[in-house]
Each structure stands twice: as C-alpha cells, then as structure tokens.
Fold this sequence. Notes:
By secondary structure, the chain is mainly beta.
Amino acid sequence: xxxxxxxxxxxxxxxxxxxxxxxxxxxxxxxxxxxxxxxxxxxxxxxxxxxxxxxxxxxxxxxxxxxxxxxxxxxxxxxxxxxxxxxxxxxxxxxxxxxxxxxxxxxxxxxxxxxxxxxxxxxxxxxxxxxxxxxxxxxxxxxxxxxxxxxxxxxxxxxxxxxxxxxxxxxxxxxxxxxxxxxxxxxxxxxxxxxxxxxxxxxxxxxxxxxxxxxxxxxxxxxxxxxxxxxxxxxxxxxxxxxxxxxxxxxxxxxxxxxxxxxxxxxxxxxxxxxxxxxxxxxxxxxxxxxxxxxxxxxxxxxxxxxxxxxxxxxxxxxxxxxxxxxxxxxxxxxxxx
Length: 338
C-alpha cells in the first residue's frame, strides 16, 4: 500500500531504538529546552519521519497513531542567524527558539509532515513529506512566503549557493529548485534518498535503502555512486571530505569528496543519524543511544559524548552552541560546542 510505505512509522522505530540498552559512559549533560505540545494543531495519524526503514530489513511499512498528549515529533532543525527552527512533524508546524536566551518565540503552520529544514537565501525552507511540497517561511514573522511542488515524498534539503536540492524519498530522485520555487530538473539517484548536502562543489545524496551515496554535478549528472555502511542516513561536508552516518551500522564513513574514496569508517553510537561539521569538529547524533558525539575530523576519534533528550535525529550549529531536537521528548537539547 503506497500510503503505508510513505508514512512508515518513525515512532515505531523510536520505540524499539530507545529500548536498546545504552553502553556509552561518562556522558556530558546538555541543557534541555521544552517545546510544548504545539499550538497549530494538526493530524496525528501515522508517523512519517526521516527514519531509514524497518529494523528487520530496510523495507518496512506500517502506520502508528501517537497516544494523546505524546510526542509532537521534533525532528529537524535549522539556524537562521538569530533563532533555531524545529520541525514538529505531528503538529504540521515548526517552532522557533531564540538562541540568546532559549525562549520559544513562535509556532507556525507548514505542510503535512515537515521532516527537513534549511535556512537559505534569507528564508526558512521546510520539506513536507506528505504534501509533496516545500514551504518557504519569512524567518522574522513565520509567515508563509510560498509553497512549491517538489517530488514524491520530499524529506531532505540542501543549498548550493544558488539553488535548492530536494531529496524525494519515495520518488528515488532529487529535485533542483530555484529560490523562486521554479523546478529546474529532477534527477534519479538510489533507493530512498534521505540526506542531501552540498560539499566539494557537488551534491551528495544518501541512498538509505541502497547503502550508498550518489554524487551529482550541479547540472544533475551522476558523477559517482559509492558504497557506505548499512542504512545511511545523514551527510555533511567537511572541506575536501564528506561524512555519512550509517544508522544500522552504528558507524560514520568519511569519503574523499573529489573521488568518493573511503578514508575510513568509525564506530559511533546506535542509530547514527544527523551529522554536522562546525568548522573544527564533526558531530554525530545517535538516535538509539540518545546521545551526541563530538569527533576529531582527522581520525574519527570520539572526544566527548553528550546525553540528549530521547530519540534525537538532527543537529544544528549557531556559531557557539549545538542544538539537537529530541523526537520523543518534545524538546531541544543545547550545549556549548567548545
């Protein structure tokens, strides 16, 4: 059933992941900022999050309705220079938090099941998984500045300095879009593209069901497809390198951007999801362990492990602090990066 495939329950995965016994010790605490229940309402039928597929094989399906009063599903996060924005998918909205004092300054409606966020070209961009579109918001007011058709199941966003790239997880393709919302092309990639990033002058797309990443030129031509770990999820650029988290592999893979050569695969936590390079360190979010790890980019060594809220999937950096939305805690965790 198509609907079941598209709304595979992240909540189901999370219930399994957070029951996995943690093995990580000496975790540093983070400040946890409550997000509340959301003020825009919205249907709560079926989790649609960014998860990588069934735990027993990468093709699962199914629908789940969260219990009344349960998680709003904080999943994605982006920084606009003043505030962080958190997509709360079960309320079909985004919440804005001012980074200077951790105050929630608004909740704003989006499309159905917002699962990816990006700040680019002066706007907040939201990928709406079940609406098959992207919403553009004014960061000062939260007002909708535009809604643009994407592909089938948009769930990943990147900006190349000129145009947007939208990963369409159900269409096995990425859409190139101008900042005015015009479609500039749709290009096939691997099976179930999730994360997407601009790195080394190219677009890198994580193919979650193919255990690979695809490298595209800015014209959309395939420049290479490279094997990574099991259930790749997130991707981030680090100078001349690209880092890919492997959700089921409990690892992160470092690739050379020029040719995709594997420079190493390093152990992290259970459910490696979001990944970020802050200019000095690589950060990896572990959904199953509810942790955040700070790594040295040279060799992937773990410097510090932080305890987050429950079930995190993503991370943002505001220039001084890191921010991690907690899917099962209705909160966002934050800590100084250095």
